[in-house]
Design goal:
4 copies of one chain form a homotetramer.
Chain A lengths: L2 E6 L3 H11 L4 E7 L5 H8 L4 E2 L3 H9 L8 H7 L2 E4 L8 H7 L2 E4 L14 H4 L8 E3 L3 H17 L1 E11 L15 E2 L7 H6 L7 E8 L5 E9 L5 H9 L4 E4 L8 H10 L10 E4 L4 E3 L3 E8 L6 H11 L6 H12 L6
Parallel strand pairs in A: 1-2, 1-4, 2-3, 4-5, 5-6, 7-9, 11-12
Antiparallel strand pairs in A: 7-10, 8-9, 10-14, 12-14, 13-14
Chain lengths: 339, 339, 339, 339
């Protein structure tokens, strides 16, 4: 059986999930729904994805712009086994999916409460097997879980403090700023800490967020108090065996997020994406045996994409074993930098 | 016969030329030479390109860094039929190539005087057939030639004024600025005008350059006084039939260089490059019948890459017909957006 | 008699006009009206400006925030001789001013049609004497008039082409972008050309605008076809004798707008403003005797401030001679860099 | 007695120290020394500061550029009581000052070891009375001391963790980047922690630095484990009584460093500087009674300026009481925002 997957919302995440689904052999793109007849809509058609409008009104807007649609979101939902919802937060399509009798996956813009089940392939794949609705947490949250979950498993984590220096907007956007300012998130903790706990409920974590004028990656400064003493080497050794965590090195000329994205482009992947969380090998330090410091960079546009593919497999029960799903996904997307 | 191509200099242009050569069936990468054992060197090896050091001193530096080299540049030049020199300007390798009896292509950082022959596939391919040494002009110059040459051929050009708003550095660099300033090039004309004339000696052109804090594309504002009156539609119609000129549209949501590069990423090409010059369809205006205004954006990292492949073919006489070379190159690189 | 001046709108321009009015001896600040009880409102009170709310609703919002207001805009308008309207475009207060029987000055965001009279101190002061309503054109338009008007007077201008590389937002804003893109204004001519003609109706001018990721200044590349031949020295000599045009020089280390604003800060003026248009002395070139090229930088936040002060004097007939008004204004604001 | 103060190095810090010295009644500017005859040199002369060249060679370079010098640095040092050295780090003038028998103050680019005495007006003024040589730590270090010293005095500090999001270069510079990247300082701790200990040797502090594409301020995220439990209000109450710490508020519309610098400009101070450390009132949080979080912004160009003035007074023994010196300095510079 090939699972029929609909993608509702064809922006930064939606178009990547569509391409990633298309790259699997156990699922296919039933169609994508989009609100604007812009260049991205035209490229979707060029790629062979059936294009749907969220409703009849929008469909006529598409028609006027000379862009053909295959029907409305309702039609698409009925024809699909599962919808990956990549619309802006609180778009409110849950009842439509319920009515259509289709499974659904939401992104991190939504609250955990919408599904009461949040997904991370390494942490809780099995828990989500066969579920009706699930949510994949945001890029930052997924990035934190990727490195913290194995640390907790191997050394035990007493507490985590993460200061996240966030890119202000994505590369394809030219409206949002700031151009020349640093903006702290004054509320504390930022929503990311509780969001990590939606997957790792026992983790003691406090997060702080600061927005800066760059488009390409988030940078996390993470401070972890470990239960068991560990060296930097031991920590790196744990991450080395973990999927979707890549190593970079200042010594190799990777001094900033600019060189990480340059490296990603050199890897010739689709859209020059970096699905892995990049950890600076020479930025890992342990003080007094138990206090660990590290820097990691998160490609906000793509790190959740493999998680979405795995979440589809879990919900559709296409694969019972999370590790096997991750391996399949990673191979299809070219993930696996030599560490 | 498969031409053996060496690439000397493996930075922004060199690594792209290497990948483009590797994508052809009438040439292959004999090896690449690089000065630093950084992440780019490691990725070159990963791609299977034999890695050479410019000299024995650098070779030992590579060895210390644990990066294996296949020999020195001299060895590489002897083993190759042609060297594409992508080193920084005035690196001075000409005598080495002469001694090795190898053909060579330089990039736009060098003066026209180094070769007395500058290349553009559409404009003077045949003139360069079998030449020993040739130079491919810079990204900006190539961009201007791409749209001006067909205009001159169809309508006649009285004079050109181009104001080039230049990106300050490439995306992979994190050292250069400015962060928050606009910097005019006070000398006039900027070097680009005379550089266009190295290929189109009769074109009356004046260029002005201004540097701005962005990394992703140059934007040209071009004002052309035509000999024959023409409408905007007639001008677009000429460009429509010309290779390596793509159309974008503000009406499709492509308002800035950000959306052009986003579109390039969506095309799933290597490194998300855009080899074409992008012209805004709804930014072409004709005033009083003969004064043409247009905006074009130039992807500084990649627009010269197909020209280098064609230049190899011309020098090696792998193909006598320039149009056929261009077609072959374009097909191999995925060039050819629906206009 | 000291003219009582109200300022409606206390943002970038409004607060500067208030301070400039306060620095004159023939007018005083009757009050300022503002819509938000933010830090700028608190600083207005600290400066001793009576603070008004646009209406009773907003007044109660101020009260809740603990910021005292002296009344509503209507009260202020009645108590004043003239209102300088610095509200966002199309705020629609004209009928309120008419009802209050008060004179008014608008800024460049409004259309010329609102007043049918646009003001520039050097160009048409006398024409505006005693007028009821007038409009001061925008920063870019004022900048163009400052250098073009004397050129036309001395050499005659056949035609002007100006390519304006515009800052995307002001330094105090952190919401707007782009962060990393160049955005051309696809419609042509940009509104600036016709706007210059609102003051200089016979000037043949075409303007083109491009937006870039900087906050500090606009940069104009201006190309002028002169009637009479002139040397660069002769052109500089004309501007030397003109008020509100300053010279900078790449040779002195002023390579970009960053150094111009640094120089402005070093001049110890209020808010580090630069009321003058800065022309690069070594960026002025004449080709073939009659085609003039020059670069000028415009401090978008402040260049219209002295024009507003002069416009007040013209409307209130505090001074019949425009040159004398300009001298008085310039002295009070510290204008007059050694050229 | 009016102390004769020389300033060696007339860049970002030097020119501000000169103006601040000129604003005092117990000291005066004996002269400033500068290496380049650029616009800043010309403005120094305009301000009436005698201009010196570091040596005879540079003096002749100035002469050629038409900029008059009053002699060499040696002459200046002999004529002065004290030199404030604002040259780039490791410029190596110590022996010249020793030979000239003059006192000297260095900036934070130098190591503590150069003087074995580092200065902060609030923390150790009295310790530095009459000293020959002293060093004022850098902007970031001074910023941390300003808020941490009073916290330690009132509540006791167990440990401090500061993540500093640093501006990449100053506003007047247009060469340095990055334009679009985040760059972590991989070595740990960053030099700032030990630097704070040069003044507060017993403070347990770890610092982490990340560089971002902005020019206007550093932003510190500070996490402090207190000995005695305290509320956010109690902490704010301590800082309220401390000089050179200002409060800003997101609720007042100060969301980012852009609005802080806008506020600074609205205060009409020299160069629109903000000598105070700005703490977000609504960004102060206490968790579990003893863990304090706060954000502070540092105007890197000016926060050390008042410290330099006080250091002069301490070394010259113009005032024995540090608090009185601070008051005098602050009044002369307009410091003292209503909190």
């Amino acid at each position: 059986m090939t699972a029929k997957i609909a993608i509702n919302g064809y922006g930064t995440i939606g178009k990547r999930v569509a391409d990633a689904v298309a790259a699997q052999d156990d699922m296919r793109v039933a169609g994508v729904a989009k609100t604007k007849p812009d260049f991205e809509a035209k490229l979707a058609i060029r790629k062979g994805y059936p294009l749907y409008a969220p409703n009849a009104d929008v469909a006529s807007k598409f028609e006027k712009a000379g862009v053909k649609t295959a029907g409305t979101l309702e039609d698409l939902a009925k024809a699909a086994d599962l919808v990956v919802d990549c619309t802006p937060e609180e778009s409110g399509y849950k009842s439509l999916y319920e009515k259509a009798g289709v499974k659904a996956i939401w992104q991190g813009g939504e609250d955990h409460g919408l599904t009461n089940l949040s997904f991370n392939a390494a942490a809780n794949y099995e828990e989500c097997l066969g579920a009706r609705f699930v949510r994949v947490p945001s890029c930052n949250t997924t990035g934190l879980i990727r490195t913290l979950y194995p640390l907790d498993a191997h050394f035990g984590v007493v507490s985590v403090l993460a200061v996240m220096v966030r890119r202000a907007t994505d590369p394809g956007d030219s409206k949002k700023g700031p151009i020349n300012a640093i903006e702290p998130e004054l509320e504390m903790p930022s929503h990311h800490g509780p969001d990590v706990q939606s997957v790792l409920p026992k983790l003691n974590i406090h997060t702080i967020a600061v927005k800066v004028p760059t488009t390409i990656m988030h940078l996390h400064t993470v401070i972890v108090d470990l239960k068991k003493a560990a060296s930097a080497e031991a920590v790196l050794d744990v991450w080395k065996r973990v999927p979707r965590v890549a190593f970079v090195s200042g010594g190799d000329g990777v001094r900033s997020t600019a060189q990480i994205m340059e490296m990603a482009r050199d890897l010739s992947r689709n859209r020059a994406d970096l699905y892995e969380i990049a950890v600076w090998r020479d930025g890992v330090h342990v003080v007094d045996g138990k206090r660990l410091f590290y820097f990691q960079a998160v490609h906000q546009e793509s790190d959740v994409v493999p998680e979405n593919v795995d979440a589809i497999r879990a919900l559709m029960e296409l694969q019972k074993d999370g590790r096997k799903s991750m391996e399949k996904t990673d191979q299809s997307l070219g993930i696996g930098i030599v560490k």
